[in-house]
Amino acid sequence: MLKPRETVRTLPSYHPPLAGRQGLRLDFNENTLGCSPRVLDCLRRLDLEQLAKYPERERVEAKLADFLGVTAAEVLLTNGIDEAIHLLCETYLDPGDEALIVVPTYSMYRIYAMAAGAELVSVPLSEDFQFCLEAVRSRITERTRLVAIANPNNPTGTIVPPEDLREIARNAPAAALLVDEAYFEFFGRTMLGTHRDFPNIFVARTFSKAYGLAGLRAGVLVGDAEQMRSVRRVSSPYNVNAVALACLPAAISDQAYLQQYVTEVLEARSALERTLAVAGIQFWPSHANFVLARIGSSAAESAAFVEQMRKRGILVRDRSADHGCQGCVRITLGPRAHTQRLLRALQETFEALGITQGASRP
Questions:
Q1: Which are the contacts of 91, defined by CB distance < 8 A and separation ≥ 6?
Q2: pLDDT tens-digit readout, 90-105
Q3: Cross-sheet strand order for the sheet of 317-318
Q4: Around Cβ 192, how many Cβ atoms within 10 Å?
Q5: Is 122 left (phi over 0), alpha (psi -120 to 50) or beta?
Q6: Whether residue 264 sits in one domain with residue 144
Q7: Which residues contact 32 (CB under 8 A, 6 or more apart)?
Q8: What percent of the chain has pLDDT over 90?
Q9: Looking at the domain assignment, is residue 282 inside a domain?
Q10: Nearest CA to 153 among 163, 141, 161, 142?
C-alpha cells in the first residue's frame, strides 16, 4: 500500500481561515486598497500569445535586480516568499539537520523545515515579544543548517537589530540564515547587501503586501551568487506565472503609488495604537502593516472580539493559537477610509464587550 513519508504523515497542517471572508479584510495583512493602476493597465494588455507560452523570468529578474541594487546572479523570482522558504529547505536541509525558528512567527518555516526531515528548534521571544540574541545563539549547534527570522516579525510586528542578524550569521556559518522582509516597505530597513559579507544570508521580499499582488503569488529571494546557483538547481524554471512576470515591472515602476499607500498605513497604525492605549488594551508597537493586541486572557475572549468585529463588517485575525499569544488578535491597517471604518467598529465592539476606556487589561 502506498504511504507518504513519515515526516509528511506527521506534518502539522496550516489551514488559513479563508472561507467566507465577507467584509473589510483586515485579517491577512493584505493591501486593502489594491495594486497600482499601472498593473491593471498591464493586465488589460495581456494577449493570447503571452498566456500560451511558458513564462521566462530572466528579463524580469534583471529589472528587479537593478531595482534592488544587486546583480541578476544574486536574484531568484519565486512563487511568493513561501516558495523561497521551501527552496532553502530543499537546498540546505538533510534529515536530522536542525532548523531554528523564533516563535511566535510565520507557520510555513516550521512546515517546510519539517517536511525536509529536519528537527525543529523553537526559541521563544521574551514575554514582551522582544528578540533575545543570546537565547538564539545558545541554541545554535553544529547541526544547525537553517535559521529563519521574519523582520519585522509576524504576528508581533517586532524587529531584530541588524547587528544581531549579522551575529547569528557569524555564529552559524554552516547554516542558511533567511531574513524574511515581507513587511519591509512599512519598516524601511533591510539586510540587502549583507550577503556579500556573509554568504549564508538570504533576504526574501514579497509583492503580496504593500504592492497588493497577493493573488499573483510573486516574491524574490536574494543571496550570494554562488549560493543562489545551488538554490536555482532545485527551482522550477517556470515557477512564476506569465501574468505575474508581466505585471511586476509595472508594479515597481509606480513608487509614488506605493509610497502614498504606505504613508496612509503608517498613519493608520499610529491611530490604532492610540485607540488601543486609550482603551487600556495591551498591544505591541509594530513596524509592519498590522498591530497585535491582547484583547483578554483567553482564546474565548479573542474569539468573541473577532465575532463582534465580523458583525460590523470588519475581519480581524485571532492569533490565540500562536506561542504566547493567548487572547490576542492581529489587525491589519489600510488607507484612511478603511481606518475610519475600523475605528468606528472598534468603539462599538468595545462597548458591546464592556471594554471601558482607560480600563486595565491583561
A1: 176, 230, 231, 233, 234
A2: 999 999 999 999 999 9
A3: 282-284, 290-294, 328-332, 317-318
A4: 18
A5: beta
A6: no
A7: 24, 25, 26, 332, 334, 335, 338
A8: 91
A9: yes
A10: 161
CA 254 to CA 35: how far, in whole Å? Answer: 10
Round to whole Å and give the CA distance between 180 and 152. 8
Residue with cell 547587528: 163
pTM of the model: 0.94
In a domain, 1, yes or no: no
Question: Which cell numbers hold the place of 33?
Answer: 486598497
The answer to the question of residue 206 being in a domain is: yes
Q: What are the tens digits of pLDDT across the range 161-202?
A: 999 999 999 999 999 999 999 999 999 999 999 999 999 999
Residues 245 and 98 grouped into a single domain: yes
CATH number for the domain spanning 296: value is 3.90.1150.10
Confidence check: pLDDT of 5 > 60: yes
Query: Counting beta carbons within 10 angstroms of the beta carbon of residue 96, is it exposed (0 to 12), middle (13 to 18) or buried (19 or more)?
Result: exposed
